[in-house]
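Table S2 (continued). Query chain:
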Amino acid sequence: MDPFLQKKQTCTPQQANALTESVLQMLIYDMRPLSMVDGAEFQQMIAQFNPDYILPSRTHFTHLEQKYSATFLKERRI
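Corresponding output:
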């Protein structure tokens, strides 16, 4: 097996923040419900990007609701 594939990947805090922000942006721009992050298939897809990344719960994304709501309303006006 290729040594690159065997190398243990890690997820730095910067990478985790970037992935979380990307998930939030996808939820906003595709107008998806926050509950999508609780779906098993969605969680498996995210794990494929970086197995060491721990996807925050819907509760975490709910705390970002102010940003989510403001951006959602802005996108709807367009």
